[in-house]
Design goal:
Strand order of the largest sheet: 1-2
Strand content: under 5%
Number of strands: 2
Order of helices and strands: HHHEEHHHHHHH
Distance between the termini: 105 Å
Largest sheet: 2 strands, antiparallel
Helix content: 55-70%
Length: 285
Amino acid sequence: MSEQIDRKQQIAGYLRTTCDWAYAHPVRALLIYIAAVSAFFLAFPAVDLWASGLFYSADQGFWAQGEPFLRRFRHLGPHLVKIIAVLCVLVLLAKLFLPARRPFMPLRTPVFLLTTLILGPGVLVNLILKNNWGRPRPVMVDVFGGDMPYQPVWLPTNWCDTNCSFVSGEASAGMWLVGAVLVAPVAWRLALLVFLVPLGLLLSLNRIAFGGHFLSDTLLSWGLTLLVIVLVHRFLFVQAPRWLHDSHLDEWFTRKGRVLQVLLNRNGARLVARLRRFLRMFSTH
């Protein structure tokens, strides 16, 4: 019994040490994670087929596709992403059009969220990988009733033209939502983690159940998206140049907002003058 307790304590100590190291070196930890996941699925591709097969039957296909609740749930993630992105844009526009007012939040927050959304789910996941790697989705693969062969991770193919399986866009969006915790008020972070982490996992699992992505697509999408988030966070908050500090961003948006006000006032005055001339011409006829 004492040997089992000692072994459990050793394992717990090793896990704590590993987590502490990963927290202190997030970029290295994520690179190791991406490499390990890639190597695992290249060595054991059957795991991908097994995981997708859990949600497939020869009679119904991927049965989750016929569940109305799961179809509606799939859209929850994209809706949340759109809401947060629109709010970020509105915060920046409000500072431009109301330069004398203090911003609704530190301006690095919307800049961080929009930058990571564009670079992560936008450019890396959808524009570069999904549109160029050509990996067929599970529903397209012959094992699950399709007409294409299974393709391993990181192997560019011509089987799929665009919006393909590698990697998962929904999983990337889910992890982007989790990344918002980094810039949330400290008092909100635990509550957001409790809500967003299960949400991201369930949204990713939902796509596997639909036959839209393999397990490897999801796991690699998490790692790649989090890597982008960590790198941008380091650039904007940890090692930020002075011109990216909140005070400098506030000053920059204030200057541009005042220039914009002058242009709008000038153009508005010209528009009013032209409208008056037009009305005079109309009244003389």
